[in-house]
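Customer escalation, tier 2.

The customer says the design service returned an amino acid string that "doesn't look like it belongs to this structure." They asked us to rerun it and document both sides in this ticket. The original structure tokens are below, unchanged.
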């Protein structure tokens, strides 16, 4: 996929996550927020001309290395990305169910991460 496809996919997944929040589908919402972020990480790495790893952990690690080079607040951003990923993994693969409080926290953090990643990506596109 091209980076533009991942940007489009991220927007769709974010919209669906927001709908899930409104409908109190908190587990689906957390998964949707993560998926939106993952699509942006893939777009970012394509813009940085990096091969895309399949596994989320490797994706986050590579994004961390690349963000470190260009974004001064990378550690805060990557910290939130890791936290969102861990909650998504726990909800999907452990006996944990998201409640409204957790889902709202993930939603707020995800919106912040998505905004920051979109700003970074837009800057990279404009520098091309």
């Amino acid at each position: 996929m091209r980076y533009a496809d991942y940007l489009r996919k991220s927007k769709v997944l974010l919209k669906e996550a927001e709908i899930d929040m409104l409908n109190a589908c908190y587990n689906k919402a957390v998964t949707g927020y993560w998926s939106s972020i993952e699509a942006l990480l893939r777009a970012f790495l394509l813009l940085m001309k990096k091969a895309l790893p399949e596994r989320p952990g490797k994706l986050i690690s590579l994004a961390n290395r690349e963000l470190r080079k260009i974004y001064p607040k990378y550690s805060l951003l990557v910290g939130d990305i890791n936290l969102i990923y861990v909650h998504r993994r726990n909800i999907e693969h452990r006996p944990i169910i998201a409640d409204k409080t957790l889902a709202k926290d993930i939603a707020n953090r995800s919106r912040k991460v998505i905004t920051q990643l979109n700003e970074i990506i837009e800057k990279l596109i404009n520098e091309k």
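Tier 2 assessment: The sequence is consistent with the input. DSSP finds five helices and no strands in the chain. The domain at 3-127 is CATH 1.20.120.330 (Four Helix Bundle (Hemerythrin (Met), subunit A)). Sent an explanation to the customer and offered a walkthrough call.
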